[in-house]
Amino acid sequence: MTPELWGALLGATAGMGLLLVVARVRAVRRPSLELRVLPFVRDVQRGTGAAPRRVVVDAPRAPGIAGVPLAVFGPVVRRVANGLETVLGGATSVRRRLERAGLERSVHDFRVEQVVWGVVGFGVAAAWGTLRTLGDPGAALGSFVGCLLAFAVGVLLRDQHLTSQVRRRERRILSEFPTVAELLALAVAAGEGPVPAMERVVARSRGELSRDLRGVLGAVRTGVPVAEAFDRLAATTGLPLVARFASGIAVAVERGTPLADVLHAQAADVRDAGRRELIEGAARREVFMMVPVVFLVLPVTVLFAFYPGVIGLRLVAP
């Protein structure tokens, strides 16, 4: 195909897309029959021995222009997300990582996000492939394969981003744990029970670990036994340290064992583990620190030391 035909095809496609967008915007902005009638409908509730009470029923709002892409492409994206779940599987692992990352969304919502990331990658590759095909029509097949690969890369990148979110949150929990454990130990040593001490600490702290403990307190307030709530926390967390912490509190509540010493010991263990990790990280980075010294500083030093002597020998030698 000639560049003129490609230009005509792209122009026609863009024009049809604009017409669809304008038609959809006009349809969304037009008030429906339900929106016109429902504000005038009243629900009358009659109580025993009381006068009729009129309650206004709130009318649903019409979706705005920002909701047009969701209304148009939402069903397609959901079907693709269901197909992606069928192909990839691993819903249990995804659900566990979502819980560990502290994200309040379902596996299906995560699959939808993966599809969106894949579509973005597909669009970038399609734009590059279109420009490439205009110069070389024979590269259309390679561009299409590149678009499919870009879609797959986008899906995998969202999965890797979820894993990185889990790691970042767990690092924050480890950094917060010694302080929270020490505060709990001080509150328990002052005579408060485990649950009141946790309420006091959670009310005065912010962070990921406080957020998990706040969820445990919410479960306890709804009637879940304290030991069972902490056992759930130990089962859902991905950090062995937090699991031991939750199991220790559950055992202390059930059997009445002293909790302050256990919390102090766990906080000391976390600080020691963080110190060891820092030393090990410094030892690993010591090797990387040698790279600029060996390949940059040392050659420049040798050059400055020997180059004047070489020039002097050339000047002296006949």
From TrEMBL:
The keyword GTP-binding does not apply. It is found in: Cell membrane. It is a multi-pass membrane protein. The keyword Cell membrane applies. Keywords: Cell membrane, Membrane, Transmembrane, Transmembrane helix. Its main location: membrane. This is Type II secretion system F family protein. It comes from the Bacteria. Residues 182-304 form the Type II secretion system protein GspF domain. The chain crosses the membrane at residues 6-25, 115-131, 137-157, 287-307.
